[in-house]
Amino acid sequence: MTLRATAAAAAVLAATALIGLAPLAAAAPRGPVPQPEAATAENRAAAMRAATAPDTLATLSRFFAREGKVSLTAAQPRIEGEAIPVNHLSPDFVAGRAGAPVARLEFLASKAVSSDGQQAALWTARTEAGWQVVNIATGDDEFRYARLGAEKLPGGTVFREPQIDAWYVAGGGRVLPLDEDAVRAVGAGGAGLDGYRARVAAAYGDKLPGSAYAARGGAGGYAEPAVADAAGTPVEAFAGGAAVLALSGAGLLALRRRRAAVA
Predict the structure, then answer these.
(1) CA distances from 19 to 69, 234, 254 (A)
(2) Phi-psi region of 208 (alpha: psi -120 to 50; beta: other; left: phi over 0)
């Protein structure tokens, strides 16, 4: 199943498969917990422990076997490489706060691989109960765009604008696109940092934490209904904390996606 890359995250979740794992789902708290500012060695190690825990591997076996592509016993999931940071557009940057970086750490991703070659990303975040896996997403987006960003702009910050599911790399005062959604947003040549901020401020400035939109309950994270900007493009509001944690109360969600990268 393919999802439109420009669909809001709420629409994505409406089409996902719930694979509810009682131990992990019950352990994950409902309240958002701010994520650390950097993916330190300690944080990566904690994320790896969560990703390789027996309960997580058992869930991965069910995940990879959910459509009959491989049997539950034959899935034999493994974790490859170390956890990588996944950054999202920062609400502080959108708000124009002095010195705010364009993106903030949202979660760490670990690559899971099945015996038959299926791939998935384990989203691991810091919760009130410690580092936990809060979502499983099919494919290798997080790792592929990290690689593309490093090739396109060595030393840059790879990040996602989740409201339109666009991936970028930022550095040297520029924001460069890594996929088709980002090209539609900033053009093939990218945009200056100030120009990019003006665009996202216009799109999301009235949907930040503390806004009237948030007060109405509209900024609760990925599970909220989509809204549209002036051009009719679906957008997602910012959550008050790590948006991924909005998934925790409902159990693990299998997010299916297929993305188109640009060279």
Answers:
(1) 16, 27, 7
(2) beta
pTM of the model: 0.76
Q: What is the pLDDT of residue 226?
A: 40
Q: Give the rounded distance of the alpha carbon of 135 from its chain centre.
A: 9
Give the closest residue to 115 by CA, choosing from 72, 59, 155. Answer: 72
Residue 258 has a CB neighbour count (10 Å cut-off) of 11
d(CA 27, CA 134): 10
Residue 170's DSSP bridge partners are 157, 175
CA distance 125 to 110: 11
Instruction: Please give the backbone phi and psi of residue 157, each rounded to the nearest 5 degrees, phi first.
Output: -100, 115
Instruction: Please choose, from the candidates 155, 231, 181, the residue with its C-alpha nearest in 3D space to the C-alpha of residue 168.
Output: 181
What ranges make up the beta strands (E) of 128-207?
Answer: 130-138, 157-161, 166-171, 174-177, 191-192
The residue ranking higher by pLDDT, 209 or 138, is: 138
For residues 102 and 71, is the Cβ–Cβ distance under 8 A? Answer: no
Q: How many CB atoms lie within 10 A of CB 98?
A: 5
